[in-house]
Each structure stands twice: as structure tokens, then as C-alpha cells.
């Protein structure tokens, strides 16, 4: 997203040089180690996994109220074409490096303007509410989209546990930093930790989902294990991965992207085909998996990513051009 051109340009042309340098050095180290161990291509930088959860079944009941009829993106595409800048800027970097992420032990602190702020363990969060499968469209600000069967439940289930007070006007989401495991963090790029935020009514909206899995399995690390957000009517960058803290606050927080490029990424980030990114149109999108690469048929981007019936009323009276 710091990139200066649309997503269809080769990553090597848009990736800041320090990230490439770090990536090359890392691959050289990994290659040398693999050769030394005689393990060749099957060697993984994470070595023995810290936990077995990834890939395990995560049963859920399909929620027909949230099932898009679009063709679902393949598991392979969803898990190999990712944005998780802590692991690098290439779409393939998260799948390559995120196996080093340690997802146990894991806690999420829900703090700030709340009557009963506290810390939740991941096992408690997995049992907090019934797991639902919801098929959501994810629209990246870069101009591509996917259709993903997420597993999780409405974030409101968790927020209600801590009794937000009247001064909780916004909710800030803080994501994990594991410097040793994250080449993108060591390279700079963004102001870490990756932080996102929603207005309290957006956060409490039933569509806003706390996600623990996809395609009926525990989330792969590259998709934001052990838990992430899915806010389907907003550009993908709002859906922060690997959450460690959720803060109820009075003032509108600045997200990492707002700090990095305030003229390009606003607080609201509602999908809006009528408001172009300063460097490209948002009128259409490329559906990952359609084939054809650059020449794939374009899909029309829908206002609020197609969720207008559910969410448009949240923005009555708000100028969505000024509040992009
Ligand atoms: N912590 C963190 N969360 C993140 C990002 C990131 O770089 N770091 N990228 C965002 C962006 S730009 C998008 S489009 C989605 C991509 O989610 P996916 O890789 O599961 O499709 O994650 C979002 N959440
Ligand atoms: Mo994105």
C-alpha cells in the first residue's frame, strides 16, 4: 500500500529497497542452513512448530444471513497471496515466513474505557461464542478481492464482556510484534505495531467479525493467526491480523496507514467505487483466482463492498468523500 502504483505491477518494482535487501540476506541464511542440515527444500525457517493448532479442524455452523453467493476463492490463493507486511511486502512473503510466528501462549487484553477490562486467553476466546462460518468478500485497497469463508463470531460478543463505558467512542486494535520472526518489522516500512481502529458503532456492528479460522480450519499464520478482524465493508487493511490488544478510547486513533500516508488512507476506509485512491481508480477490482493476470475480467466494485443494506445507515450525514 505504500506502493506507488496499482497492484498489477511486479512486486520487485514497488518494494522498498531495504526490504529486498533484508529478504535476500534472510534467504541466503535459510539456504545455507538448509544445505548444512541436508534437508533441502523441505526445511522451514520455523523448525519444529511451537504449537500444532494451525490446520486443525475448527467446526462452525454456517450462518446463511452472511453467506455470499459469489464463487469462493481457493484455499491455496487465500493462503499464498497475502498482505502481512510484518513478514515482508511480497504477496508470497507471509506464506513463506509466517511459520515463525509463535501463536501460543496468546492473550488479548481488552482495556480502556470499560467497566470490567481484562485479559482473555486464546482458549477462552475460542469458546466465548458459537463459531459461525460466514462467506465475506475482502476488497484490498490495491484493487483486488477474494471471497473467503471465515470462521468466528461477531466482535460485539467480546466487547460486551468488558462493559464499555459511555466514553468508549472508538476501538483501537493493536497487533503482535515478534521482531525475531518478522523480517518486515526489522526492515521498518510502517510504524509498528500495526494498529487499526473503528468507531464504536462500527465495532459493535454484527458484521464486524473476530476470525479464528477459514475453510473450517484454524487460521494459517499468514492470514492472521490466532485471531484477526474481518470488517467486510471496508478496505482490507482495516481487518487487522494477530490481535493482542483491543482498546476502548475516547478520541479517534491514528492507524498505522494514516500515519504512513494520510492523503491516501483515511480513518473510515469504506469501500467506495466513487472515491479514487489518489493514484488509481477504485471503480473495479480483480478477483484473485479468476486467471488471466493483468487481463482478467474486472468486477465492478460495489459501494460498501456490497454491504450497503446493512451498514449505510451508520454514515448518514457523513461526507464520504471528505471522510475516505
Ligand atoms: N497485522 C497486519 N494486519 C493486516 C495487514 C498487515 O500488513 N499487518 N494487512 C492488511 C491488508 S492491506 C489486507 S488486504 C488484509 C489481507 O488479509 P489476507 O492476507 O488474509 O487476505 O490484511 C490486513 N491486515
Ligand atoms: Mo489491503
TrEMBL record:
E.C. number(s) listed in UniProt: 1.8.5.-
Name the record gives this protein: Protein-methionine-sulfoxide reductase catalytic subunit MsrP
Residues noted as binding Mo-molybdopterin in the record, renumbered to the chain: 82, 85-86, 140, 175, 223, 228, 239-241
GO molecular function: metal ion binding; molybdopterin cofactor binding; oxidoreductase activity, acting on a sulfur group of donors, quinone or similar compound as acceptor
Keyword list, A-Z: Metal-binding, Molybdenum, Oxidoreductase, Signal
GO biological process per UniProt: protein repair
Entry coiled-coil feature ranges: none
Quaternary structure and partners: Heterodimer of a catalytic subunit (MsrP) and a heme-binding subunit (MsrQ).
Residues annotated as domain Oxidoreductase molybdopterin-binding: 101-257
Cofactor notes: Binds 1 Mo-molybdopterin (Mo-MPT) cofactor per subunit.
Family: Belongs to the MsrP family.
Function: Part of the MsrPQ system that repairs oxidized periplasmic proteins containing methionine sulfoxide residues (Met-O), using respiratory chain electrons. Thus protects these proteins from oxidative-stress damage caused by reactive species of oxygen and chlorine generated by the host defense mechanisms. MsrPQ is essential for the maintenance of envelope integrity under bleach stress, rescuing a wide series of structurally unrelated periplasmic proteins from methionine oxidation.
Reaction(s) this enzyme catalyzes, per UniProt: L-methionyl-[protein] + a quinone + H2O = L-methionyl-(S)-S-oxide-[protein] + a quinol; L-methionyl-[protein] + a quinone + H2O = L-methionyl-(R)-S-oxide-[protein] + a quinol
Cofactors required: Mo-molybdopterin
Taxonomic superkingdom: Bacteria
Modification after translation (UniProt): Predicted to be exported by the Tat system. The position of the signal peptide cleavage has not been experimentally proven.
Amino acid at each position: 500500500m505504500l506502493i506507488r502504483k496499482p497492484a498489477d505491477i511486479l512486486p520487485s518494482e514497488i518494494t522498498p529497497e531495504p526490504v529486498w535487501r533484508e529478504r535476500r540476506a534472510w534467504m541466503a541464511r535459510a539456504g545455507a542452513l538448509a544445505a548444512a542440515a541436508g534437508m533441502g527444500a523441505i526445511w522451514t525457517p520455523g523448525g519444529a512448530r511451537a504449537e500444532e493448532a494451525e490446520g486443525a479442524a475448527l467446526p462452525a455452523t454456517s450462518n446463511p444471513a452472511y453467506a455470499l453467493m459469489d464463487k469462493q476463492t481457493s484455499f491455496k490463493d487465500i493462503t499464498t497471496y497475502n498482505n502481512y507486511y510484518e513478514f515482508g511486502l511480497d504477496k508470497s512473503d507471509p506464506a513463506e515466513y509466517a511459520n515463525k510466528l509463535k501463536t501460543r501462549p496468546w492473550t488479548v487484553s481488552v482495556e480502556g474505557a470499560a467497566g470490567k477490562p481484562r485479559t482473555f486467553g486464546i482458549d477462552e476466546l475460542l469458546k466465548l461464542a458459537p463459531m459461525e462460518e460466514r462467506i465475506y468478500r475482502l476488497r484490498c485497497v490495491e484493487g483486488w478481492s477474494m471471497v473467503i469463508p471465515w470462521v468466528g463470531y461477531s466482535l460485539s460478543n467480546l466487547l460486551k464482556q468488558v462493559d464499555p463505558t459511555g466514553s468508549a467512542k472508538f476501538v483501537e486494535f493493536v497487533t503482535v510484534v515478534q521482531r525475531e520472526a518478522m523480517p518486515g518489522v526489522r526492515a521498518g516500512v510502517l510504524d509498528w505495531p500495526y494498529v487499526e481502529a473503528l468507531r464504536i458503532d462500527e465495532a459493535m456492528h454484527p458484521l464486524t467479525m473476530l476470525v479464528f479460522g477459514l475453510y473450517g480450519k484454524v487460521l494459517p499464520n499468514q492470514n492472521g493467526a490466532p485471531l484477526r478482524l474481518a470488517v467486510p465493508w471496508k478496505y482490507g487493511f482495516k481487518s487487522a491480523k494477530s490481535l493482542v490488544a483491543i482498546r476502548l478510547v475516547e478520541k479517534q486513533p491514528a492507524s498505522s496507514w494514516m500515519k504512513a500516508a494520510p492523503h491516501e488512507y483515511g480513518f473510515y476506509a469504506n469501500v467506495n467505487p466513487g472515491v479514487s485512491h489518489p493514484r488509481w481508480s477504485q471503480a473495479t477490482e480483480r478477483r484473485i483466482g479468476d486467471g488471466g493476470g493483468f487481463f482478467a475480467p474486472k468486477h465492478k466494485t460495489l459501494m460498501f463492498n456490497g454491504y450497503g443494506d446493512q451498514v449505510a445507515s451508520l454514515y448518514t450525514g457523513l461526507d464520504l468523500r471528505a471522510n475516505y
